[in-house]
Amino acid sequence: MTRRASITRTTSETDVSVSVDLDGSGRAVVDTGVPFFDHMLDAWGRHSLIDLEVHATGDLAVDAHHTVEDTGIVLGTAVASALGDKAGIRRFGSAVVAMDEALMLAAVDVSGRGRLFYDVSVPIEFIGSFDTTLAKEFLTAFSMTAGITVHVYAFSGENAHHIIEAVFKAVARALREAVEIDPRADGVPSTKGSL
Questions:
Q1: Using the 8-state DSSP alphabet, how is residue 140 labeled?
Q2: Nearest in space to 70 (alpha carbons), one of 142, 151, 130
Q3: What confidence tens digit (pLDDT) does each residue in 21-72 have?
Q4: What DSSP element (H or E) covers 80?
């Protein structure tokens, strides 16, 4: 079974192409024009073990908002497409990730009902050209289009870089567990028979 997808979305604000392989090794090739965001997506690929190729151009002269949000939309759409009918997946995943003083919990449910529940306080500032409020915007867009319920909870954190990096890594690790094929599972992991 091949669990790969490639999605492109073009608007008047952005042009985003994403390819994923859910059964990859964590190889990431990323170019969004927003260096810190590229770093976060590289970490996402590495820790989810999802091979990821992301190319985005956007109206960065305005700011990075459209580029980051639209990348979340396209990545979520690609993951949903690669999951297909979701037969055999574990469905649920969770991870606790520490990065220096920052400690994050992420839990995901590949439910078909995409929502983000985000209890993370991040200093509002810029990390390079990345506005720290965009981490939540990215995860909102991703969760909605992927059809994945995502919970992120911060136990601690002061440094914005550490907080956001721990968030991305925790969600990636939880996603890795949830989309893995469970060798003991038969069919779709739902009493309804579909997700």
A1: H
A2: 142
A3: 999 999 999 999 999 999 999 999 999 999 999 999 999 999 999 999 999 9
A4: helix 65-83
pLDDT in tens, 66-117: 999 999 999 999 999 999 999 999 999 999 999 999 999 999 999 999 999 9
* CA dihedral over 45, 154, 144, 129, signed as positive or negative: negative
Report CA-CA distances (Å) from 120 to 106, 157, 165.
11, 9, 12
Fold annotation for 4-179? Ribosomal Protein S5; domain 2 (3.30.230)
The verdict on pTM exceeding 0.90 is yes
Closest residue by Cα to residue 77 from 122, 125, 144, 10:
144
Instruction: Delimit the domains of the chain by residue range.
Output: 4-179
Cβ atoms 28, 42 nearer than 8 A? yes
Q: Which residue in the block uniquely carries the two structure tokens 């990075």?
A: 64
| Residue 17: φ, ψ to 5° | -125, 130
CB of 107 closer than 8 Å to CB of 173: no
